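Worked example 2:
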Amino acid sequence: MKKILAIWLLCLSCVQAKAHSNDENAFHVGVMLFEGAQAIDFVGPIEVFGQAGFRITTVNKDGREINTAMGLKVVPDRAFSKDLQLDALLIPGGNVNGHLLKDVAIKNWILAQSEAAQYVMSVCNGAFILANTGLLDGLNATTIEKAFTSFERQYPQVNLVRDRKLTDNGKVLTTAGLSSGIDGALSLVAKVKGERVAHSVAAKIEYQWMPDGGYIRGKMADQVLPDFGNLPSGISLLSRTFHYGDERVWYQGYRFDIGVLEIVDLSAWLAQQMAAAGWKLAGDRGALTWSFEHGDAHWLLHASMKPTSDAEVVAHLTLTRQL
């Protein structure tokens, strides 16, 4: 019995006794949902807003249940309506497709809410939804790293920022991918209630909030790697097995099906790609090692390849910034 009581008391210490504020005078955040929304893009910020004592309303076009990108079922509080008054609007990312961007009802509702709201913030590729309204025209914006190129091409009137987790244009904010929404939410809390409250919320949810830094995907070492072109005929990419690192070191792994070809054919293709991108051979002749000067940094890339079957090859790339 004592053990059960101890566990119960421990659980109580980890959660609040109540949810977000129900006070009609509390700062009111609307969270826009849609089919395929990325859960972390809105669940993380909701936790922050709730801990800060904000009132939260989840809303979508028709008020019906949605499935997030990871299959979580969520029922919004209400459907779009003209009478909903918000102090801030959060637009998450996720499955942001052409159908969603062409939805006039969603676009008009965001524009209508933005007129009275103090703040509008997008998370991840929710920046596409926000940019589609024109509210980002002439402003700084960021999004998830893998969408940089398509965002810049689709919205040339927006100044894409690649090396920051958050862009703050005063009223309109955008964040980088996924967990960056937590940083954006904390920054919004700081704007509304002050930095001490924001830091207190970060401590309460045990999150290392670094307003001017932290992990910024667009600054990781792999940004200097070339954009590898199409594979030669007869070779296909089966999967990218891993990719991780920091600003000085990066690791990537791949599985290829080379069919009736040889590893040397894959190696020759990689060598051509590196040479075309301006990388120079380094080390012994025949070694899959290249060097590259980028600004004041000197980079070294080493590749290794190993057959795992008659037709399958694994390749590992190690990128390091030399001191």
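The two ends are 59 Å apart (CA to CA). Residues 11-217 form a domain with the Rossmann fold fold (CATH 3.40.50.880).
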